[in-house]
Amino acid sequence: MIAIFEVLAEYLVNKPIICSLKPLLPLFLIVIYCLDSDRKNILFIIALLLSSLTNILFIPDTPMFLFYGIIVFTLHRIITIYLIFSLQKVIDYIPVIIATSPFLLIFFYLFSETPEIPQNSFYIIIVQNILISVLTGIALSSYVMNDNKQNSILLISALLFVMLQFVIFVEKYFLTNEFEDFFRPTAMTLNALAFYSFYKYVVTAEKSNHNNGLS
Predict the structure, then answer these.
(1) Of the candidates 36, 51, 151, 209, which lies 20 to 30 Å from 42 by C-alpha distance?
(2) Model pLDDT, residue 93
(3) Whether the predicted pLDDT of 215 surpasses 50
(4) Distance CA 147, CA 206 (A)
(5) The whole model's pTM is what?
(6) List of residues 6+ apart from 185 with CB closer than 8 A
(7) Nearest 5°: phi and psi at 118?
(8) What secondary structure does DSSP assign to 3-23, as a single string?
């Protein structure tokens, strides 16, 4: 319900509702996660807190706040990838590298074709492109190597994150101040679905690892 109201607020450009609801999405996911999980992984909670802070920093939509938001989101992405590695127990990294390569090509092609990137965001965006490519590479390779419920949910979440980053990148650097009534609600929808899917992945992975440990 929060996501639906937030998407509507983005479409109507209702700033008071956007400012009040946008940081709440990750916080409510933390509450749901703590109620649903028996493990309570602190890394996942920290990742969601950083996501909430990122949402706050992206609200003003100015170059300075965008820069700080990207920094916080980069830290969030690093913790997310570390969390996935801790849950996935990846042994062979060759499939991960192979699966990561196409996404690196796509995002760096977009990066090279971007007309104007602020100098202070240049290297951070490069790191972001690498991190989202690695995240998706882990998800895709895990799904191909072992098609189970856990890896299927992770792949869905990763692809939603890819689409989210693509939409944000196009909005911020290609079509600035154009089609906002499309990009903002779309980004908010993808954001909500991606994080909810990732929450489902973490809970599923925790239960699966626990059951495997018992067996």
Answers:
(1) 151
(2) 87
(3) no
(4) 17
(5) 0.88
(6) 7, 8, 10, 11
(7) -55, 140
(8) HHHHHHHHHHT-HHHHHHHTT
